[in-house]
Amino acid sequence: MKALNMIPLFVIVPLAAAFLNSLFGRYMRRFAEVMTVVSSGLMLGLSVYARILLESAPDKILVYKLGGWAPPFGICMVLDGFSGLMLVVVNLVAFFVAVYSVGYMEKYTDKPKFFILFSLMVCGMNGVAMTGDMFNLFVFLEVASVASYALVAFGTGEEELEASFKYAVMGSVASSFIFMGIALLYSFTSTLNMADMARVLSYRHSVWVVPFAGVLFLAGFSLKAALIPFHAWLPDAHSSAPASISAMLSGVLIKTLGIYSLTRILFNVIGAGQGYLKALMFFGVISIIIAGMLALRQSDFKRLLAYSSISQIGYIILGISLGTPLGVFGGLFHLFNHSVMKSLLFLNAGAMDYSTGTRDLKEAGGLDKLMPLTSKTNLIASMSISGIPPFSGFFSKLIIIAACVQSGHFGYALCAIIGSVFTLSALMKARKLAFLGEIKDRMRGVKDASFTMKISMVCLAVMCAAGGLMLLPPFRFFIETASGVLLKGTSYANIVMKAVLR
Fold first, then answer.
1. What local confidence, expressed as pLDDT, does residue 1 receive?
2. Do residues 186 and 192 touch, judged by C-beta distance below 8 A?
């Protein structure tokens, strides 16, 4: 019962933090940042605790019925291996970004408003991960999306406002596709509960309604995940936003609103048919190659990282869409690793911008001597995301490549290897221009990042270096249980309905 009562806290706590920040943030100078850091830390602790408790639950699933009303008439929140993984990922990155923002956001005005929107975005992502209801998935998705639109424009400069507008337009198109897909499935099944919808779809078949809804979901969530060719909004949004928000967007938002939502619906509600999986594999591979090549051409550090994010999302999608136990495991493992690696890289870029006043790699130089901690953590993150052993990214990429070979997709395996070469080349170019070489005159006097910014970067760097330990038996359940949820397919609905009746 205690574990069940914990479930709604993942929405209540960040929502309460946003509310309290709006009341007291403007009157008490440090209230908003302290409240956000404390609430984020509490959510991280609760998510890890809930994930551990889940292993001893019947069928490794917990269902919280809001108001005591059982679905399909009531709304429920579901904690399983997959949602538990996303909760830990979201709140892990959110906590370190919140700590980083205490120092970084000094360069911006009206910090309380930033932390209000930040808490709302975390609330929305937690809600997306926890909900067992299609309409509430859409509501929480919109809460997170609208907060992120405002946060991208937080600098209020011409570049930020243009990027935010572009992001909002593309996000609204994506939301329209998703809403139409939900409406079609609701009209066909007369239920919004995901498990009940999957149960109805198992015996009611349609020639066009369900496949058409699947295509709408594929387009809508691929826009949210920024897969090529649905990626146009991401480079501008990620490069223009404050570094804290770039880390959140790339680290967790596109994964929660895009990858998690898409795979949850395709695998556990509609059923992941070969047509969907082949389309996703294709989108994943072209994202790996094309975005990797585009990253090589960038001189703006954050824009380079934005294209790299698209490429790495391709790896996650490629692994999951293989539909094999090894592929799904590798895809989810890379989802976790990429959240840590890319968040750290964007925080590095933010530290560089904070200290030097530029994101242009050609204007920097010699920062290894001036910003040694930022440089060292950047090296660790760059090696990890490029798949260099013994860092965490090596293991997840190796598993995805092995899964491609195991399933006979040798061409895709080769593309995954080539993509890593592009990633390594782009990030080594960034290191050469920004951190190595002689110190330029305009860089003299530059100091490293503030204390709170350093704490976050060091902690994330340690996780990049030690992430391979997740493959050891004591920790492997964390990813294995999540991949097991997807591999159960639509039969997973029976487990959820069984848990509802307890």
1. 45
2. yes
Distance between CA atoms of residues 255 and 257, nearest Å = 6
Name the residue type at position 431.
R
- Which bin fits 63, alpha (ψ -120 to 50), beta or left (φ > 0)? beta
Give the number of other Cβ atoms within 10 Å of residue 226's Cβ.
26
CA distance 286 to 421: 15
pLDDT for residue 3: 63
Check if the beta carbon of residue 94 is closer than 8 Å to that of residue 147.
Answer: no
Domain ranges, residue 168: 2-500
Q: How far is the C-alpha of 58 from the C-alpha of 72, rounded, in Å?
A: 21
The proportion of the chain whose per-residue pLDDT surpasses 90, expressed as a percent, equals: 46
| Tens of pLDDT, residues 300-310 | 888 999 999 99
Neighbours of 146 (CB within 10 A): 18
Regarding pTM above 0.90, the answer is: yes
Number of domains in the chain: 1
Among 148, 109, 144, 108, CA closest to 126:
144
417-447 pLDDT, tens digit each: 999 999 999 999 888 888 887 777 777 777 8
pLDDT tens track for 23-46: 887 887 788 889 999 999 999 999
Q: What share of the chain is helix, strand, coil (3-state, %, to 5)?
A: 80, 5, 20
At CB < 8 A and 24+ separation, what contacts does 461-465 make? 461/344, 461/376, 461/377, 461/380, 461/381, 463/340, 463/392, 464/337, 464/340, 464/341, 464/344, 464/380, 464/381, 464/384, 464/391, 464/392, 464/393, 465/380, 465/384, 465/390, 465/391, 465/392
- Candidates 384, 307, 377; CA nearest to 100 is 377
